[in-house]
Amino acid sequence: MVVSALQLQQIVTEDFETRRYLVTGDLTPGVYADDASFADSNNDFGPGVSSWVRGVKALFVSDRCRLALTAPVVLDEGKRTITFTGWRQVDTFRLPGAPHTPVFTGTTTLTLDPVDNLVIDHTERWDQTPSEIKSGLKFFDPDFDPPGF
User: Fold this and answer.
1) Which of 13, 20, 30, 92 is geometrically suited to a Cys-Cys bond with 100, CB 3.0 to 4.6 A?
2) Tell me, what's the pLDDT at 17?
3) Where are the alpha helices (DSSP H) in the chain?
4) What is the average pLDDT across 20-38?
5) Is residue 1 over pLDDT 80?
6) How many independent structural domains does the chain possess?
7) DSSP 5
8) Strand 81-90 and strand 32-39: pairing?
9) How many whole angstroms separate alpha carbon 100 and alpha carbon 16?
10) Is residue 145 part of a domain?
11) Rounded to whole angstroms, how far apart are CA atoms 81 and 2?
């Protein structure tokens, strides 16, 4: 799929807001290079969009996760990036006791190939450390209803 950088910004924003791709794995695969790299503040998932999608779908109970943009999605054609400049998230994992994280925040930068505008790198930066997030995990939480979503 060949799209302009502006069209790509619109597609990935819709992937975030509508398809909630960070917790569902439901992204528009045609705008990612097959060997795109994925990393966050805790893991480097390496290359492979299909591998990342399978991992997300296996890891999260997506209908219990929460995800919201808190700042603009910014296209920088000179740097060849699209940045989600602010989001907040709560993850619920497919593990016994359905543990969920506390609310955490961060940014995500997508780096674009200079020729065809495909996303070649997806990097999340969390505002909290992985240990802060892990220490706030809650198990067997029947009152799960995080604020602000």
Assistant:
1) 92
2) 96
3) 5-17, 21-24, 49-59, 130-135
4) 95
5) no
6) 1
7) H
8) unpaired
9) 20
10) no
11) 16
Given the structure tokens 């809650």, which residue do they identify? Answer: 138
Q: Which domain CATH number covers 86?
A: 3.10.450.50
Strand 66-69 to 81-90 pairing = antiparallel
Residues 60, 92 contacting (CB under 8 angstroms)? yes
24 token code pair: 């569902």
Look up tokens 């569902």; give the residue. 24
- Whether the CB-CB separation of 89 and 42 falls below 8 Å is answered with no
Overall average pLDDT of the 92-100 stretch:
94
Contact 83, 109 (CB under 8 A): yes
Structure pTM? 0.93
Between CA 27 and CA 50 the distance in angstroms is 10
In a domain, 140, yes or no: no
Write the pLDDT tens digit of every residue in 72-86.
999 999 999 999 999
In a domain, 106, yes or no: yes
Residue 144: its pLDDT value, please? Answer: 87
Does residue 141 lie within any of the structural domains? no
